[in-house]
Amino acid sequence: MFDKVLIANRGEIALRVLRACRELGIATVAVHSTADENAMHVRLADESVCIGPPPSPHSYLNIPAIVSACEITGAEAVHPGYGFLSENARFADILHEHDIAFIGPSGDHIRIMGDKIQAKKTAMELGIPVVPGSDGAVETVEEARTVADDMGYPVLIKASAGGGGRGMKLAETADDLEEAYTTARTESKAAFGDDAVYIEKYLGKPRHIEVQVLADGKGHAVHLGERDCSLQRRHQKVWEEALSPALNADQRAKIGATVADAMAKLGYSGVGTVEFLYENGEFYFIEMNTRLQVEHPVTEMITGIDLVQEQIRVASGLPLNITQEDVSFSGHAIECRINAEHPETFAPSPGRIEAVHVPGGLGVRIDSGIYAGYTIPPYYDSLIGKLIVFGKTRNECLMRLRRALGEYVIEGVSTTIPLFQRLLSEPAVMDGQYDIHWLEGYLAKSD
Ligand code: ADP
Q1: Residues with CB under 6 A from ligand 1
Q2: Residue 192 CA to ligand 1 centre (angstroms)
């Protein structure tokens, strides 16, 4: 096991990793930009190193500065959190060359899954069901037309290098195809420097269901059930729950086993999430995230497994000490992402936090780095906390969520707390009857 880990991230996830390290008896090194001198992850870490000015390309994405921070402090491993360098294969390789462990999968596995065409091909080869579509990249508009005509409309043109919903264009009919194809390529070239695109059948009313896996790179892998992240705004998850209200135990066991077997075969190491669209009882692979996810706590709440500790154990070379039979699911958990944003316009709301009161009590977890007197810098993501609630049943969980949201006070900046309070009076949310378009439709109606 490692003696000292450097946490290459900030905010709530840096704290989350720090807590896991501390419980494992591992010393922690925080890194921070000059804008984060007073951040909670810096205050709580055993040591801290300033790695640059506020803009993230000069600090949290600055690989030489982070490697130097490891060398100065003697950290043996780096936990990248999510975002920033967590899916940067070159970073994983560079650490490896410096004899520093990357708490995550191999650079090669990150590379495969970071390229959507390659990821989809790999998923198919491993027996994971995928969305029907083109066989790899589509080079010309004529080829696009042939594929789309054969498959039937609507179709989606997707960028191989895509992320965050960019480079993705819908063609409802044959008339839209040429424009969708051309814009997807241009947008992808501008955003990612790569204009490879592929075509997929567009699913009309799917849910977003993702399977959590844990693997040791030695051929052992288990699945930890699924999360339902269908409540999204602009392809960003807003509310996540485990387990999905849409699946039964047989469906869960089947898709879980498919994913775990695939990861064992791949020799994957660490935590990972295989994301699916789910419609009419069928799963369709969309992508794999080769890192810890924002919404991992809902899985922890229903399995009792600390995903970050497992990630660290596996990265230190230990084999998985959990078998599939050891994994059981109890109760229901929901996470609300609390952003410093206006709850109706979603405009960012950085600034000084005047007062904070967090909810507590049985089954309530807050992962957050804010405190009264803390100033949220304008340079980074607006996520300032996560409220995670557990209940024996989904209904109990919803009642507890309502109670906890009512206690949560953050003064000085706007937050998305009122949005969640509104959502709790919506029958679709209460009944778990929503697809990936529901929230956008609801927000458009209440404009
Ligand atoms: P990104 O990496 O850009 O986020 P994804 O492939 O993960 O791209 O897709 C993002 C979102 O786009 C999905 O969560 C879903 O809402 C929508 N989407 C992607 N593929 C399809 C599809 N074939 N049919 C319908 N919606 C899709």
Answers
A1: 131, 156, 162-165, 168, 200-203, 206, 208, 235, 275, 277, 286-287, 436
A2: 17
Q: Are 102 and 314 in contact (CB under 8 A)?
A: no
Nearest CA to ligand 1 atom 13: 235
Interval 290-299: pLDDT, tens: 999 999 999 9
Query: How far, in Å, CA of 36 to CA of 19, rounded?
Result: 19
Euclidean distance between CA atoms 93 and 100, whole angstroms: 10
Between the CA of 276 and the centroid of ligand 1 the distance, in Å, is 9
The pLDDT tens digits of the residues spanning 44-73 come to 999 999 999 999 999 999 999 999 999 999
Domains of the chain by start residue, with CATH: 4-103 (3.40.50.20), 132-201 (3.30.1490.20), 207-446 (3.30.470.20)
Per-residue pLDDT of 414-423, as tens digits, reads 999 999 999 9
- How far does the centroid of ligand 1 lie from the alpha carbon of residue 125, in Å? 21
Q: Is there a catalytic annotation at residue 227?
A: no
Mention every residue, 6+ apart, whose C-beta is less than 8 A from residue 161. Answer: 114, 115, 116, 167, 188, 191, 192, 193, 194, 196
- pLDDT of the residue at 162: 85
